[in-house]
Amino acid sequence: MSDNSLPIFNLYINGQWRAGRSEHYEPAYDPATGEVLAHVAKADAEDTRDAIRAARQAFDHGAWPNMAPGERSRILHQIVNVLEEHQTELADWEMHNSGATWRKANLMDIPTGLVHFRHFARLADFEPLEPLPQITFPTLSYNFVRHEPIGVCGQIIPWNFPFLMAVWKIAPALAAGNCVVLKPASYTPLSALKLVEIIHETGLLPPGTLNLVTGPGSVIGTELCTNPLVDKIAFTGSTEVGRDVMRQASSTVKKVTLELGGKNPTLILDDAELDIAVEGSLWAAFMHNGQVCEAGTRLFVSGKIYDRFMERLVDRASKLHIGLPADGTTDLGPLISAGQLRTVEGYIQAGLDAGATPVLLGRRPTEPELAHGHFITPTIFTNVRNDMRIAQEEIFGPVLSVIKYDSLEEAIRLANETIYGLAASVWSADIDRAVKVAYQIRAGTVWINDHHIISAEAPFGGYKQSGLGRELGEWGMKAYSEVKHIHVDLSRVRKNRFWYDILTPQIDD
Ligand code: NAD
Question: Given the CA of residue 161, which atom of ligand 1 is nearest to it?
Answer without folding.
Answer: 43
